[in-house]
Amino acid sequence: MGLNLKDWLARCPLVAILRGIKPEEAEAIGDALLAADIPVLEVPLNSPDPIESIRRLAKRFGDRALVGAGTVTNPGDCARIAAAGGRLIVTPHADPAVVRAAKAQQMICVPGFFTPGEAFSLLAAGADGLKLFPAEAASPAVLKAMLAVLPKGTPVLPVGGMDTTTIPAWRAAGAAGFGIGSAIYKPGDDAAAVAAKAAALRAA
């Protein structure tokens, strides 16, 4: 599969945020998510040994999954993540320098934003999509207004508070995808728990 964010989101609009995952759990959790056809896997850098988890996921799932890092705040981390096989960079904040560093490594980059000014500066730096964060502080109406002014086709993914109850309204407002954290994985969840949560989210 190519390095096109829209292709991955067309397959499944959910991004699994595996905050707190340990390297020894990564492959079993990845298996459960791929079995549920959720192929975009994000390991936040504030997890235990995140680069090793990314390396194991990328090695096991190869081109069947889009594996990368979240909570990336330092442009210098992009090269380390790419070297481990990561192909996705997600940030919590609007920093064009991280976007440029990710694009220099030929990675997909989905930086965080909250205002139109941030959105346009990130797109100018080469962002492939935008993460509306924290989505709890916005609303589907805010997303709809943003999409009216952003370049047509810009994928916007709300992150924060996304679960089976909130997804439908955001989807109706035009969200291209969703970053799912504790609603799909929290530390201590085994593969069976993740598989059950993944199935419910896919249905939503």
Automatic annotation (TrEMBL):
Pathway: Carbohydrate acid metabolism. It comes from the Bacteria. Its EC number is 4.1.2.21. It is an enzyme of class 4 (lyase). Pfam families: Aldolase. Keywords: Carbohydrate metabolism, Lyase. CDD domains: KDPG_aldolase (cd00452). One of its GO terms (molecular function) is 2-dehydro-3-deoxy-6-phosphogalactonate aldolase activity. Homotrimer. Belongs to the KHG/KDPG aldolase family. PANTHER family: 2-DEHYDRO-3-DEOXY-6-PHOSPHOGALACTONATE ALDOLASE-RELATED, 2-KETO-3-DEOXY-6-PHOSPHOGLUCONATE ALDOLASE. This is 2-dehydro-3-deoxy-6-phosphogalactonate aldolase.
